[in-house]
Design brief:
alpha/beta, Rossmann fold, 13 strands, 45% helix
Length: 425
C-alpha cells in the first residue's frame, strides 16, 4: 500500500465509508425507475444465477450504446466451445436490451457498485478469466481487485476525449496506477491511443471502433408500419439524440422549412426521454404531440416528440436525413454510425469529438453534412425533401462511409484471444 497513489487511497477510503449508505441510495433510485426491484442484490455483488462451468469472459459497459457495440464481439468469442460471456451494465434499459439480444451462452448481470465489499462478492462468485471494459469505463476498486484476483484485464473500443485526458493529467500518479492495471488497451482511434499511452497504459493498440461493426438498430415491424402509415408521404427531418440547447436551433430550422413545405414534419428524439415536456414547451404555438403519451403524428401536427427509450431504429428508418445531436453543443456528438448503417443521411454540428473518425468518414463520403446554425440545417434538409434522388444518394454515401470503418471486431477478437492464450497477437 505504501506505493499506492494518494488519490486511490482516498477513493478506497471514501467508498468504504459510504458503503453503509448504498442500500438507501439504491432505494431512492428504485423509486425513480433507475433500478430493477427484482435484481437490486446484483448491485451489491450478489449474483442471481450460478456461475457456468468452463471459461468465463466478463464484458462491462456503461449502458445501451456500449453493450450493443460488443454484440458482434460476444458472438465471435462464443465460438470457442465451453466458453460463456457475462455482460454487466448499470442501467435498466441496457438490461432489457441484453435480455432480448444476447446469444445463447451469454447472460447479463447488473454491474456491482464500486465498493470493496460488492466487488469482492462479485469476483468471488463469478471468477472471470478475463475482464473487458468497454469505451471509458474506469472503476478503481473493480479494476484493482480484479487484478489481484488474477483476472486478465483489457480496455476494448477505448475512447478518451481531450477533456477527460486533461482531467487525468492532473492526477498522473493515480492515472498511471489505474492504466497500468490493464494487460492490453485496444483503442478506437489514434488520439485515444496516444492519450492512454501518455497516462501510463501499456501495450496500447488501435483496433478501431466496434460501433462500426455493430448490427443495425432494431425496429419492431408492427410499430414501424404504424409510424410509416401515420407519416404518409410527408417530408421529414429527424433530430436524433438531441441535448438541451439544440432545439433552439432546430425549431427555427423547422419554421423555415414549413414556409415552402407546408406539411413538413420534424421528429425530435431527445437523448434523455424525460425532456419531452420541456421540448413541448419550447415548441410554443407549433402543433406538437408526444410519443410517450401514446400519440402518432397526425396531418395537423408539425412536431413529433419521440420521448421514449430504445426506439431510434424506428425513426432512422422513416427519415431520409437525420441531424445527430450532442453536436451543436460541446457534448461531442452522438453515434453517427447508427443512422448511416440504415442508409439515413447524416448532418451534425461542429462538436463531434466523441466520434471524430466516424463523422470524418461519413462526411467525406457524403461530401457535406457539417452544419452550424438553423439556416444550414434547413438548407440541407430542404434539398433532401425536395429531391428524393439526392436524399437517397446521400444516404447511400453515408452507408459507404460507415462500411469503410469496419473490421474493428475481428481485430479486437484476435487481441482478446491472445490475452486468453488461445491465439497469437
Amino acid at each position: 500500500m505504501s506505493g499506492t497513489p494518494w488519490g486511490l487511497l482516498a477513493y478506497r477510503t471514501a467508498t468504504l465509508m459510504l458503503a453503509p449508505a448504498i442500500p438507501f441510495a439504491l432505494r431512492g433510485r428504485l423509486k425513480r425507475g433507475k433500478e430493477d426491484a427484482t435484481r437490486l442484490g446484483e448491485r451489491l455483488g450478489h449474483a442471481s444465477r450460478p456461475r457456468p462451468d468452463g471459461q468465463l469472459v466478463w464484458i462491462h459497459g456503461a449502458s445501451v450504446g456500449e453493450t450493443l457495440s460488443v454484440l458482434p464481439l460476444i458472438g465471435k468469442l462464443l465460438e470457442v466451445p465451453g466458453r460463456h460471456v457475462l455482460v454487466t451494465s448499470g442501467t435498466v434499459t441496457s438490461s432489457r436490451m441484453m435480455a432480448e439480444r444476447l446469444p445463447p451462452g451469454a447472460f447479463h448481470q447488473f454491474s456491482p457498485l464500486d465498493t470493496p465489499g460488492a466487488i469482492a462478492r462479485f469476483l468471488a462468485h463469478w471468477r472471470p478469466d478475463a475482464g473487458l471494459f468497454v469505451d471509458s469505463e474506469i472503476w478503481p476498486n473493480m479494476l484493482s481487485q480484479a487484478k489481484r484476483a488474477g483476472v486478465k484485464l483489457a480496455i476494448v473500443n477505448g475512447r478518451m476525449s481531450e477533456r477527460s485526458f486533461r482531467g487525468w493529467r492532473y492526477a498522473r500518479r493515480t492515472a498511471a496506477a489505474i492504466m497500468g492495471l490493464f494487460d492490453v488497451c485496444l483503442a478506437a482511434d489514434e488520439d485515444t491511443a496516444r492519450r492512454l499511452g501518455e497516462l501510463g497504459a501499456r501495450d496500447v493498440r488501435v483496433t478501431g471502433n466496434l460501433k462500426a461493426d455493430a448490427p443495425p438498430l432494431p425496429a419492431d415491424p408492427a410499430k414501424l408500419g404504424e409510424l410509416r402509415a401515420a407519416i404518409g408521404g410527408r417530408p421529414v427531418l429527424l433530430a436524433a439524440s438531441t441535448h438541451p440547447g439544440e432545439e433552439e436551433s432546430l425549431l427555427p430550422a423547422h419554421d423555415r422549412l414549413r414556409r415552402t413545405l407546408a406539411d413538413f414534419l420534424t421528429i425530435i428524439v431527445p437523448r434523455h426521454a424525460g425532456r419531452g415536456g420541456d421540448i413541448a414547451m419550447l415548441c410554443g404555438t407549433r402543433q406538437a404531440v408526444r410519443r410517450s403519451q401514446g400519440a402518432l403524428p397526425s396531418p395537423a401536427d408539425a412536431i413529433y416528440i419521440a420521448d421514449t427509450m430504445g426506439e431510434l431504429g424506428l425513426f432512422y428508418r422513416v427519415a431520409p436525413i437525420a441531424f445527430v445531436g450532442g453536436s451543436l453543443v460541446p457534448h461531442g456528438g452522438q453515434n453517427p454510425l447508427e443512422p448511416a448503417r440504415l442508409g439515413c443521411a447524416v448532418m451534425a454540428g461542429p462538436h463531434t469529438f466523441n466520434f471524430t473518425a466516424a463523422y470524418d468518414a461519413i462526411f467525406a463520403a457524403q461530401g457535406e453534412g457539417r452544419v452550424h446554425a438553423s439556416g444550414e440545417i434547413a438548407a440541407l434538409a430542404g434539398r433532401a425533401a425536395a429531391d428524393p434522388a439526392f436524399a437517397k444518394s446521400l444516404g447511400e454515401a453515408a452507408a459507404r462511409g460507415a462500411r469503410a470503418l469496419s473490421g474493428a471486431m475481428a481485430r479486437t477478437a484476435a487481441a482478446v484471444e491472445a490475452l486468453l492464450g488461445h491465439a497469437d497477437a
